[in-house]
Amino acid sequence: MTKLFVHLLLIAIVFLGACQDKTKQSEQTAADPAVKIWTVEQAEVWGDEHGWLRGCNFNPSTAINQLETWQAETFDPETIDRELGWAEEIGMNCMRVYLHHVAWEVDKEGFKDRMNQYLDIADSHGIKTIFVFFDDCWNATYQAGKQPEPKPGVHNSGWVRDPGDLLHEQPELTETLEVYVKDVLTTFEDDKRIVMWDLYNEPGNSGYGNKSMPLLKQVFEWGWEIRPSQPLSVGVWNLSLADLNKFQVKNSDIVTYHNYEGPEKHQAAIDSLKAYNRPMVCTEYMARRNNSLFQNIMPILKKENIGAINWGLVAGKSNTKYAWDDPIPDGSEPPLWFHEIFHPDGTPYSQDEVDLIKSLTSDE
Fold first, then answer.
1. What is the C-alpha separation between 7 and 5, in angstroms, rounded?
2. Where in the numbering of this chain does the Glycoside hydrolase family domain appear (predicted)?
3. Looking at residue 342, which CATH number applies to its domain?
């Protein structure tokens, strides 16, 4: 997803209070109305309950972006059911799925009904869901209605940020975003089909840096006001964003992170984040060109009992089989797929990869 690789996540900030936080949190109880963040003990209970999560960042192959996924005219339960069936067959049990406030804004009840339909389909395949609210990646502007066609050979050519540049142009949008987040969280606050809320994908991306801090702080506050039964988290992804990283990790119930590096650097990132003594989920990994592979990363994540959520399930309109920075303008097949597991007809990109995934998930 990001064009910035994570080298050694948070080594510089991990020890700036992790021990003190653990002590203070262990003294809190769930009955304390002042509690915002889960205690370490609460997080451990959640980890024990859900076991080893493994799955994909999921966008149906017929949708170019979050709006095409969720708008009434393009919501595609048939494709969702078919593609999640392929995920079930290889032992996946969790999908990370992006929302968008505009799809809610134009059709609030319909949007939540479609979320419920999606959850029914996923649940029928034994798949839990991580929903993502905000996102600082890719295209800055967006609109409701018909979405653009994919640009041939261009990775995520139609993916859109949420809220993107609009928030900086219209600060009053914050009021809408608050109602949106609280409405969705309230509707699904005790839904067992949802395993986690990912409040904000890659804050600070697209050159925003600390401009994303106000919304990051606000979305945690909104989440704490509702305090759903599921954990709240925002994943760290770029070592250089020290202020954002520190806030994200210190305020997340569960530690989440992105890493598209090879095994040595990925292991170093894991080791640095262990200091927080909380369950961990890698919410983005697997970019074949970068030596982030199922073969060399997924076994590490299983051994460490870290959730393994790779980017992409089925190649489609998002074009994420193409690399971030290596477009193929004629739309021809890339020599090496960047992301994705299946062709649109359900044929595996690599039978060896699928066999490995099955071997890792078969005894769970």
1. 6
2. 89-312
3. 3.20.20.80
